[in-house]
């Protein structure tokens, strides 16, 4: 059996032995990583390419509020190193021992995303799109490709919150082009304003 397969089976066994992750009645983090700690584990190849990414981690809360038995349950882009970076950061998080309702957090399973993103320093003029799904806006932070197209777009804000506008806004943002003054690999803010019919 390969070492990679053994590691995957071990992670699956660890994840299966704890209660399912809860998303309700969760307190705010008591402690989390600093920006310097986040930057220290930014995957080197992703950093060099100015690639944004994220990983979702699932952990048990121990008796001190620290995280234990963590496993990566999602990574984007896959294979980019953000899963390993998230695992390196998991000891930096600590939960309060009580939830907002007063219930114990000890032994609960929490699932949370960790995102790495360098902020865009330039913004395109807002793009207006007629929409049959409603009105609102979605703000993206995208990377400029060699052909001035955009990729690696990350949603940084949406109004109203939720995902009903994401598909149409995502298609619209990928049709945009950066100006000639934008260097390939730099990041650009794009606001897609959806106007309901």
In summary, what is this structure?
Helices cover 21% and strands 32% of the residues.
Description:
The protein is an alpha/beta fold and 197 residues long. It has two domains: 3-116, Fusion Protein Consisting Of Minor Coat Protein, Glycine Rich Linker, Tola, And A His Tag, Chain: A, Domain 2, CATH 3.30.1150; 122-196, 2-Layer Sandwich (TolA/TonB C-terminal domain). 21% of the residues lie in helices and 32% in strands. The protein has five helices and eight strands. The chain has helices at 3-16, 35-40, 44-48, 82-89, 166-174; strands spanning 53-61, 67-76, 109-116, 122-123, 127-131, 136-144, 150-159, 187-196. Strands 4, 5, 6, 7 and 8 form a five-stranded mixed sheet that branches. The longest helix has 14 residues, at 3-16. The protein is globular. Residues 1-14 have low confidence and may be disordered.
Mean pLDDT: 88
The percent range for strand residues is 25-35%
CATH topology of the largest domain: Fusion Protein Consisting Of Minor Coat Protein, Glycine Rich Linker, Tola, And A His Tag, Chain: A, Domain 2
Poorly predicted sequence stretches spanning 5 or more consecutive residues: 1-14
CATH class of the largest domain: Alpha Beta
Report helical residue fraction.
10-25%
Largest sheet data: 5 strands, mixed
By DSSP, the count of extended strands is 8
What oligomeric assembly is this protein in?
Answer: single chain
Distance between the termini: 58 Å
DSSP helical segment count: 5
Tell me the domain tally: 2
Instruction: Specify the structural class.
Output: alpha/beta
Dominant shape: globular
Series of H and E elements? HHHEEHEEEEEHE
Just name the CATH architecture of the largest domain. Answer: 2-Layer Sandwich
The value of Rg in angstroms is 19 Å
